[in-house]
Every structure is written in structure tokens, then in C-alpha cells.
Amino acid sequence: AASAYENVEWINKLTEFVVGVARTKPEVKIIRICFSHQIIARALSSTIVPNNGIWEVGPTKVKLNEVGKELFGVPTIERFHRDHIPSVPSPFLPIGSMPVCENQGMVLSLKDIQILTLQGHPKFTDGIVEHIVEAGVSVG
């Protein structure tokens, strides 16, 4: 229920921890999804904002660009989120986009990936997303 842009102690501590690991321990591989995708961007001085009251939820797939297709070996992945990162922070490469949210994921170098983040949830199948929607996700 929290947003990565909130100025609260536990989010601030998490952001500091993530930036510390990313900058001082390049041997540690980091993969983050949704909220944590946004924390990575915040840790690297990017902006996270509400998505104009729009949730991306449902069995709609993100079209991956060439970088995303190379990483996953498939043309699409699922998505589910409320907030978003309007742009891809440097030096990350974008992996895919949708009209409602352009930054659907990013990777730090394709050669030796240190950080990979996804806005959506690739673990959610169509059936899981449909069940969540049917169960009545609170969008407050």
C-alpha cells in the first residue's frame, strides 16, 4: 500500500540500503519488481509519481523492445501497478513500454547484468491476474 516516493523512515532506509549495495557491491546481482523497481530509480535520483490515478491491472501484456526480448526470450510480459517512473534513468536501458506507462522495466548493462528491474509482475499469469481482479483489488 506504500508508494516508493513517500518520505517515510522505512522507505528512506530501504532506498539508502539499495543505493549502497548498487554502488559499492557491483558483484551483487539485483532484480527488483514493481515497488522495488521504483526504489531502484529513486535511489539513483529518478522521479516516481502516481500514474494519474490509473492502475495497470489485468491480463494485458507489455510489449518488450529488443533489449527486453533478448533478456526474456519472449515478446511480452504481464504488468500490474499503480505508480510509475516516467523515464528511464541513466545509465539504464529500457526493456519495454505501454501507452499508460512508458518505463516497464530497465537493465543496467546487457553484458554483465548487475541490476534488472520490472514495473510489472512477470510471475502473474493470466489466471492469477484474472483472480485478483475478480477478488476486487482495492484501488484506494
From TrEMBL:
Instruction: Report the coiled-coil segments.
Output: none
Q: Name one GO cellular component term.
A: cytosol
| Protein name in the entry | Glutamine amidotransferase domain-containing protein
Task: Identify the PANTHER family for this entry.
Answer: GLUTAMINE AMIDOTRANSFERASE YLR126C-RELATED
